[in-house]
Amino acid sequence: MLTRRALITRGSAVGAGVVFLWPRPAEAEAEAAKPVLATTKSIPLGGGKIVKGKYVITHPKKGVYKCFSAICTHQGCTVASVSKGTINCPCHGSRFSATTGKVVNGPAKRPLAAKKIKISKGAIRLA
């Protein structure tokens, strides 16, 4: 006859084995499930691209890509362009650093929210 302790111990060991043997999706499959925001080829060096009105992806220097919220922190307008190292809001003239998202010229007082991205085979996705 099994004691309660033996039953719990054996059940835990079996449960742990099931967890470790459970098939996990390959990393590539999980990554592919996240939509591609842009390709590295579509982001000009020294410039950037507004994506779906939600994100702005910049390419401040060779091999470096950054992603920020495209919503200006001043009054919620969508930024319109990236040029001369800044992300530019058309509503009231706020400009943000294309490298850090920090305010370069107000009236905005807070930086653009940074978004983590992952680049694989030239595809830029949220991390």
CATH fold title: Rieske Iron-sulfur Protein
Query: What portion of the residues fall into strands of 2 or more residues?
Result: 25-35%
| Count of β-strands | 11
Main beta-sheet annotation = 4 strands, antiparallel
Let me know the average pLDDT.
85
Provide the CATH top-level class. Mainly Beta
How far apart the termini lie comes to 52 Å
Strand order of the largest sheet: 2-3-4-9
CATH superfamily: Rieske [2Fe-2S] iron-sulphur domain
- State the helix count: 2
CATH architectural category:
3-layer Sandwich
Overall outline: extended
| Helix percentage | 10-25%
Work out the radius of gyration.
23 Å
Residue runs with pLDDT of under 50 for 5 or more positions: 13-20
Give a structural overview.
This is Cytochrome bc1 complex Rieske iron-sulfur subunit. Its cofactor is [2Fe-2S] cluster. Pfam families: Rieske. Keywords: 2Fe-2S, Disulfide bond, Iron, Iron-sulfur, Metal-binding. The protein is α+β, with helices and mostly antiparallel strands and 127 residues long. The relative contact order is 0.16. It is built from 2 helices and 11 strands. It has a single domain, classed as Rieske [2Fe-2S] iron-sulphur domain (Rieske Iron-sulfur Protein, 3-layer Sandwich), CATH 2.102.10. Strands 2-3-4-9 form a 4-stranded antiparallel β-sheet, with no helix packed on it. A 4-stranded antiparallel β-sheet has the order 5-6-7-8, with no helix packed on it. Strands 1-11-10 form a 3-stranded antiparallel β-sheet, with no helix packed on it.
